[in-house]
Amino acid sequence: MKRRHEAGFTLVEVMAAVMVFALISAISVGLLTTALRSKETSEAVMADLAAVQRIQALLSEDIGQMVMRPVRDEDGLTDPRVFALDVQGADPLNPDREGEPREILVLTRSGWANPGGVQPRSGLQRVAWIYDGDHLWRETSLYPDLAQGAAPVRQMIAEGISDLQIEAMMTGVWTGVVELRPGRNGEAAAQAPRAVRLSYVQSTLGEMEHVALSPTAEVGR
Length: 221
What we know:
Elements lengths: L10 H54 L1 E2 L3 E2 L5 E2 L3 E4 L15 E8 L15 E7 L4 E5 L12 E6 L2 E10 L2 E3 L1 E4 L6 H4 L4 E8 L3 E8 L8
Antiparallel strand pairs: 1-5, 2-3, 4-5, 4-11, 5-6, 6-7, 7-8, 9-10, 9-12, 12-13
């Protein structure tokens, strides 16, 4: 009686199958990794784009509704700046130190919504833009005239910001250092900038520029 031969795989066939399976697995893992990295990159780009749009929106709102109104500090003293702008630091009492946060734009604006008058405040708001060489913040106070112990609220607008420049259009010329002080009979308002230009390099998106018009943009040149 003849012995029945059982069918099976040879060692070579088994090794070939294992190699094919390993190759398919490696390709699948590679595709998955690439897809995840692409998703992370896309999310990062979208986040940076949202930050750029936030800068544009806030700058347009602040400059478009600024008022030439003097304010007082928490000691009751009048702040000599109704509007100030300087990328090296707009606060003369706090000189710029490399890499430290510094005020680059200071102003008072109107149009701060207070639905139903819930909070005991006006629609005016003191605003300062702050930069440290990488991060850009916007600092606001509940009242334009600071009260004792009333700390401003600081919100980060964007990060990865370098080579930042800020200028104001004064009498038809872009100027990088501006400090307007209270005047009589609307003198400060007459000197108000027509526009503010903010330019910088965003780490992902590259060079960016925003121009925001002031309420006096249509007056004169």
